[in-house]
Amino acid sequence: MTKNLVVVTAGLSLPSSTRLLADRLTEATRRQVRQEDLDIRVIELRELANQIAQNMVTGFPGPRLRDAIEAVTGADGLIAVTPVFTGSYNGLFKSFFDVIDKEALAGTPVLIAATGGSARHSLMLEHAMRPLFAYLRAIVMPTAVYAASEDWGTGGDSALDSRVDRAAAELAALVEARPLGHASAAEETVVPFAQQLAALSSEE
């Protein structure tokens, strides 16, 4: 019985501390899900930036973006990680979730996390990320994980690991409990644009 864990990371650099945090959370969750086979997929939003921008203006996703959307909306659990830009999530992160149907993540367990240069930006998780996923009716884990620059050093590493393990345990418990075959927007049929135009023409 396989469950799907999808990891969305919005880091822009390569290598990226955002991806590093996403990998830690993914591995910790994989260790915690003991009773299920876990299929893990990582989505790097920087690789989809052009298609996300095109979707914002046309309303239609390109093939790679559509595939990513279907993976996210069909997931049994989601890890969402973004760098902090101007006190909030970055624009690429927000744009990706803007192009997903607002009902598609209802009931999906989500672990939210962020990276930044200073610990003073950690409240972004509560005033920006948590409300975003609450609006999308996802189930947001009580423990959110923020990693500042100092957390990657020797002194802060154990504290970061503790937060990662606690958040992963919360997500793993809900992934294991989620029933198979849950409904998602990924199952809906998308009508091609040409077909929509034809239908409009026939009504005139």
List the helices and strands and how they pair.
Elements: E1 2-9, H1 17-32, E2 37-44, H2 49-58, H3 63-73, E3 77-85, E4 88-89, H4 91-98, E5 109-116, H5 124-135, E6 139-140, E7 145-148, H6 154-177, H7 193-203
Organism: Streptomyces polygonati
EC number: 1.5.1.-
Keywords: Flavoprotein, FMN, Oxidoreductase
Short description:
The protein is α/β, with parallel strands linked by helices and 204 residues long. Helices cover 45% and strands 20% of the residues.
In terms of quaternary structure, what is this? single chain
Mean pLDDT: 87
- Give the termini distance in whole angstroms: 50 Å
The share of residues in helices is 40-55%
Q: Which CATH-level-2 architecture? A: 3-Layer(aba) Sandwich
Taking the sheet with the most strands, its summary is: 7 strands, mixed
CATH class type: Alpha Beta
Describe it for me?
- This is FMN reductase.
- By secondary structure, this protein is of the alpha/beta class.
- The protein has one domain: 3-Layer(aba) Sandwich (Rossmann fold), CATH 3.40.50.
- Helix content is 45%, strand content 20%.
- The protein contains seven helices and seven strands; from the N terminus they run E-H-E-H-H-E-E-H-E-H-E-E-H-H.
- Strands 1, 2, 3, 4, 5, 6 and 7 form a seven-stranded mixed beta sheet that branches.
- The chain starts with a strand and ends with a helix.
